[in-house]
Hints:
The complex is a heterodimer of chains A (172) and B (249).
Chain A: H1 6-29, H2 34-50, H3 52-57, H4 61-83, H5 103-113, H6 117-128, H7 133-140, H8 144-162
Helix pairs in contact in A: 1-2, 2-4, 4-7, 5-8, 6-7, 6-8, 7-8
Chain B: H1 3-11, H2 19-60, E1 85-87, E2 96-98, E3 100-102, E4 105-110, E5 115-119, E6 134-138, E7 150-154, E8 157-163, H3 170-187, H4 193-196, E9 204-209, E10 215-220, H5 228-236, E11 238-240
Antiparallel strand pairs in B: 1-3, 2-11, 4-5, 5-6, 6-10, 7-8, 8-9, 9-10
Amino acid sequence: xxxxGDRDKQFHDFVLAQRAGLLRTATLxxxxxxxxxxxxxxxxLTKLYVAWPSFQRADNAEAYMRRTLTNAxxxxxxxxxxxxxRPTAELPELPRTDQHSEPMADxxxxxxxxxxPRMRAAVVFRYFHELTVTxxxxxxxxxxxxxxxxxxxxxxxLRTALEIRPAAPAxx
Amino acid sequence: xxxxxxxxxxAGPEVTPTMADIDSDLDRxxxxxxxxxxxxxITGSAFAVAALAAGLLVANSGTPAGTTPTVAKDPGSxxxxxxxxxxxxxxxxxxxxxxxxxxxxxIQADTASALILAPxxxxxxxxQSFVGKIGIMLQSKDEHGAPEGRKVTVGDxxxxxxxxxxxxxxxxxxxxxxxxxxxxxxxxxxxxxxxTDDGADDGATLWVRQPGGVYLLVQFWEGLGLSEKDMLxxxxxxxxxxxxxxxxx
Lengths: 172, 249
């Protein structure tokens, strides 16, 4: 397929540079489900292409991209929910990925899956991307207070689930 | 091992996209942009038709006696399948009671967390599927408040009508395509018009505020031929009782 205009050329370069990183972030946002993560990335890139002029004008392109990814996560969950899942007290089983099957990765995957999606996203942005509270709030389109309370609750859950003591230096 | 390293491992390797990946992304983007522009054109045309009709009707109020009005059709009915609502007479489900359903519809599935309304002869009998159906449930415990949408009154209760966004995410498109193929294989394209009409864009979710602040959700799949008045009437006829359960996630 050829690249026809400025938008296509810019988008092509953007995908080349950002896709791999987006997929890794999406994998964490989906608690290790690589297939759903790929769908999430495709959905995000489609939204960005459609809104390309706005994306280009954004003061903070990275924040815009993260917000689009987070919104796509919500859309994806709603779409899946409305098509084939209904909210239940029991969380559905997600397919295991073949890679990273060591016990610690399995525990983390399970612990992340037990978090509500936006709380999971707060953890990913704060402790994987190491964004500040302000940057995370921008990515999630919420207040800084919400980020603090969400990450605090998420860390408490992860500590329990992974049996790591609160004093462990890993949790900043 | 610290949390960052664990997350880094779970995120997987950084795989450089192939040219085929990038081309596919570009293709999806172009198609979505084309669809959006087409929808905008259609919406603009429909508005123009309605405005023209309204203008003619106003003009007709001053038409000399004996002149035949030139507006023959109500533009609001163009392309819309009429669906009559009738009183629901079947067994009432646990957690809810419902007053009105589209003619020929039934409660296809009734669980603690959701109710599914569907045509009695629906090809798709999967109680997990919402395609071509009406889903009724309480909002998730993880959600609070209602999303942005048009404020409406449902019976005597405030609500929000949220039009369904254009489907662009690959998972939903793939599932819709699978459902369409299965329906056509069973009964031909006419057996499932809501699946074969890719242009239908009247899907919506009605959010109705309940006394405790939780919202009732009534989700209408696109292409059912229901007007907004019908949706509000169906929503007003859904009553939530103690047995209704909020889900999570």
